[in-house]
Fold this sequence. Notes:
The protein is an alpha+beta fold and 115 residues long. The chain has helices at residues 11-17, 56-62, 64-81; strands spanning 24-27, 31-35, 43-49, 87-89, 105-109.
Amino acid sequence: MSDSPRGDDCIFCRIVAGDIPSRKVYEDESVYAFQDAHPKAKVHVLVVPRNHYANVTELAKAEPQTLAHIVEVAQSIADEEFNGAYRLIFNSGEDAGQSVFHVHAHVLTGEVLPE
């Protein structure tokens, strides 16, 4: 796992642990999904691995099966919320807009999204 902050220092680790309330959408043994506090679409869900990795590249190297599972969860959310269509975004690095350094996928769906 990454050397970046985790546990008490990582907001997403604390959400996954139940220390910070969230609006849960889905959970299983490897991922936790919850509604984004500042949605950019009608449905905006964050899917995070339970294990802490700073970015999607770290996750892909360490747990490629979890990365694939995140995509499956995104599809499931879109199937439930909006005819299966969705946008999946990973911001990697501060200059790309990543503000929480616990890898997370943004699942945007629930409406027709602009290009």
